[in-house]
Design a protein that fits this description.
Chorismate lyase; 12 strands; 3 domains; 26% helix; disordered C terminus; two-stranded antiparallel ribbon; alpha+beta; Arc Repressor Mutant, subunit A; 8 helices; 285 residues
């Protein structure tokens, strides 16, 4: 890796500079928190103009790889925290611990309140039914990452009003103390802009991008037991999802796979009809 551009290439200079800097960042030439060389220094290193360097750095900033601080320079941004909360029924606490982080939380609110119409609809209960609301500002390595509000019917686990969740998993407590095991959930993901309160809590600018998760969790019998609304910092969070292809109805290959058994023959594939169970005789009952 070097600090040069190919002047015979059709690739614009700013893209070549951006790609070269990205490779250096990935290789560890500069560590998170390090200050990159100044714009004049980068101009000299790449032998390009200042607008080229500025555009390359802006591109890196838009991808969250660097942070540009007015009057202070450009710094290597910390790596984003990966979360699998969209595809797995782990809680935030367990998800972070499995990655080697030490998550903590500041509990902002923990009390029993009458369920609003919206919360009641999510939990399948009547409005004004007592629910326990827990609002937490959650940290990873002492940095605020998530602002989450959780609602659980009071009758499900009254002990939730007393437990300290600043350094403990909510799901683990529900399992151990109340015998509540989350079996499945439905989660939606949406990009939103931080309002003034959210920005102050998460230490971002007003209007900064946040990732919103809205989730309802269910017991194995289908009873909704938890509703939460979470806001994650967009500059420090990414969600990972594993995709599995499902063939559409009517897909020719799916039809063949359903009704035929394949056998490899020579260089091709020969299909034979699957054996069908005999049709039972009617008993007249």
């Amino acid at each position: 890796m070097d600090f040069s551009v190919n002047r015979t290439s059709g690739i614009p200079y700013h893209i070549q500079v951006r790609n070269a800097l990205r490779e250096h960042l990935q290789a560890g030439t500069w560590q998170p928190g390090d200050r990159l060389p100044s714009e004049p220094e980068l101009c000299q290193m790449f032998a390009v103009s200042r607008p080229v360097i500025r555009q390359a750095l802006n591109d890196l900033a838009q991808h969250g790889l660097v942070a540009r601080l007015k009057g202070k320079g450009t710094y290597v941004a910390p790596p984003k925290i990966s979360e699998s909360l969209v595809q797995k029924l782990t809680g935030f606490y367990q998800d972070m611990v499995e990655q080697g982080y030490t998550p903590t939380a500041r509990v902002l609110r923990q009390e029993a309140v009458p369920a609003s119409r919206r919360v009641a609809e999510r939990l399948g209960i009547a409005p004004d039914t007592p629910v326990i609301v827990i609002e937490r500002l959650r940290f990873v390595q002492d940095e605020p990452i998530q602002l989450v509000t959780t609602y659980i019917p009071h009758a499900v686990c009254p002990a939730l009003l007393e437990v300290d969740l600043s350094r403990r998993s909510l799901y683990a407590f529900l399992d151990e103390a109340c015998g509540i095991v989350i079996a499945r959930g439905h989660r939606t993901v949406e990009a939103v802009a931080a309002n003034e309160v959210e920005a102050k809590m998460l230490q971002v600018k007003k209007g900064a991008p946040l990732i919103m998760l809205d989730s309802v969790s269910y017991l194995s019998d289908g009873t909704p037991v938890e509703y939460y609304h979470a806001l994650h910092r967009g500059d420090r969070t990414r969600f990972e999802v594993e995709l599995v292809r499902v063939r559409a109805p009517g897909d020719r290959q799916a039809v063949l796979d359903e009704h035929l058994t394949s056998m490899t023959w020579g260089s091709g594939v020969v299909y034979r009809e699957k054996a069908r169970p005999p049709t039972p005789l009617s008993t007249g009952e």
